[in-house]
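Async update (no meeting this week)

Hi team, since we skipped the sync, here's where things stand on the single-chain job. The sequence we agreed to prioritize is pasted below, unchanged from the tracker. I ran it this morning and attached the output directly underneath so nobody has to dig for it. Comments welcome in thread, and please keep replies under the output.
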Amino acid sequence: MRGRTERQAAFIAVTPEQKVPKHHPIRAIRAVVEPLLGELSPVFEKMYEPNGRPSIPPEHLLKATLLMALYSVRSERQFCERLEYDLLFKWFMDLNLDDPAFDHSTFSKNRQRLLDHDVATKFLAVVVAEAQRRRLLSEEHFTVDGTLLEAWASLKSFRPRDEEDPPAGAGRNPERDFRGNPRKNDTHVSTTDPEARLYTKSSGQAAKLCFMGHLLTENRSGLVLDILVTEATGGAERETAIRLLERRPGVHRRATLGADKAYDTRDFVRQCREQDVTPHVAQNTTNRKSAIDGRVTRQEGYAVSQRKRKRIEEVFGWVKTVGATRKLRYVGIARNQLWMTFQAIAYNLVRIANLGAAAQATPA
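Output:
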């Protein structure tokens, strides 16, 4: 029998808790997030003055940023619009059904406060510590890699440093002819994002205004231990990899480091060994001699590292697709570092929740 449309009820007794399915994956993520935010409470107390008008709770800002990463929300404005009607979002942020969504400008007004107190890095640290408590991390075997991240700036904004006035043309987006005018980072700079650099990894690809994102992961569960955003330069991958090794959490025991052919240089291998790290780097023998010899490659652990290191590409793939970060959404290294750190946190939370569910499903 055909159903009939009816007018919506004026009042209904329901809570967001009732509308989120009992076995929804977000419940496992929230169970991990809540106690970790409690650990960060002393940091939140230092962020605000004791007197004055109450602000949006910092827990809401952090949860909101996680939701943007987990659900591929493309902007803060879109998130605030969705928060008004999405019961799952309200439930995750501990809001009542009739609580209004905060304004999108709240993110930009509080972003500098988060940067000044390094909240994202501390949040990632407590997530990694939680993974350590669950015995999900390897303390001896790591992987490092880097990827290009397209900046929020167009090539039209890449202009000569000594150019006084913008080119004449109709509208705010005039036509520009670059033929016969070579552009280099030494002589040109983006007016939209001065920290972005023109770069390409391959001679067959078009150069774009980019930053570089660098990851350090462990090999047992593929969790992210650290992440850095830097300028895009030819030596940035290797230089940042050494910084990531120095910053890695826990006691620095003898370890191995998997990496691709871009890291096969004598300086990088020497610097790794100075830190008591065995470089399990893929050999680059194209018209050159590899810095890695048979003493390393004949070991069984070398083959394992080369197989495990490919898991880091899963993180980059997740960040660029689910996290919607194939093209960055902010200007400058600092703001993009904040966003990318939350991407790493969100990825780790998904992995921790999935590994926990898999452990429970495995019969004893």
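Quick observations from my side:
The beta strands are 141-150, 158-160, 188-190, 197-199, 208-218, 224-231, 255-259, 277-281.
The longest strand covers residues 208-218.
Reply here if anything looks off.
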